Amino acid sequence: MTARARLVRHGPALLGVGLFCLGWELIGAYRLAGMTWPPLSAVLAYLADPSHHQLLGRAAGTTFAAVAMGYLTGTGIGLALALLVRLVRPARAGIDRFVALVHATPAIALAPVFMILMSRETIPVAISALAVTYLIYVAATSGLEATRAQHADLFRTMGARPLTTFWRLELPSALPALASGLRLAVPVSFMGAIVGEWFGASRGLGLLMISAMQNFQIPLLWAAVLLTTLTSLILYGLLGLFEAAVHRRFR
What pLDDT score does 69 carry? Predict the structure, then answer.
């Protein structure tokens, strides 16, 4: 790809990010949103200050560990449910409604239940996993049904066993949709972990945001938000590359 083609392809995205950063800086510098909106440069300076690294690093480590565990757990549960639906098709309607019901229930309503059933340090993982499970389940079930009828007929005509049809036809057909689900689940897992930390966790970026907001430590609040957002966007972008590779290979 030539430099001109790269500029045409990525130019609008870079321009959008630049305008967002410029707008953030101007709104903060001229106090257009009051004292609660600091300039972007002030937030970056706070993040770059070595005296803040230990506090932010400790909180980020806790949150990112919860995100990773929630993401992996939710992915595993979502895939298991999708495979169960594939094997026991009459169960599809019931599992669909159950997953949708759990996903539609606000986390704040489930939090008291979690606080009774598990330790408070585990709640961020559980809420993150719940949100991820729904996306992975929907992506996997729709992907497994994306097999073209003529291909399924060909396998059936050739006498392929159900397991062979699954591994050679249905699973490869499902991978593009599954890759999209994995990418979309990244920001959701971050939001779940952050919300989960509001229910009594002893450490984490979500707890840091609440504490900073209550004590009017605005730069700390926005530094935690920016750190969370940037990490989520980086992982989202990396999985976007993975998704593009899967689409090129299996579509």
Answer: 96
- Alpha carbons within 13 angstroms on the beta-carbon side of residue 118 total 15
- Cβ atoms within 10 Å of 46's Cβ, excluding its own: 21
**Cβ-contact 110, 179 below 8 angstroms:** no
Write the pLDDT tens digit of every residue in 37-88. Answer: 999 999 999 999 999 999 999 999 999 999 999 999 999 999 999 999 888 8
159 contact partners, CB below 8 Å, separation of at least 6: none
Average pLDDT of 140-169?
81
The label of the residue with tokens 């992907």 reads: 143
Burial bucket for residue 22 (CB in 10 Å: 0-12, 13-18, 19+): exposed
Round to whole Å and give the CA distance between 99 and 124.
Answer: 19
> Token match 């030539």: residue?
2
Give Cβ neighbours of residue 146 (< 8 Å, ≥ 6 apart): 173, 174, 176, 177
Kindly state the DSSP code that residue 91 receives in the 8-state scheme.
G
Residues in the chain: 251
Sign of CA dihedral 125, 128, 130, 132: negative
Q: What is the pLDDT of residues 196-224, one digit of tens each?
A: 888 878 889 999 999 999 898 999 999 99
pTM: 0.87
* Contact present, 172 and 150 (Cβ < 8 Å): no
Alpha helices for 88-170 (secondary structure H): 92-104, 107-117, 123-144, 149-157, 162-165
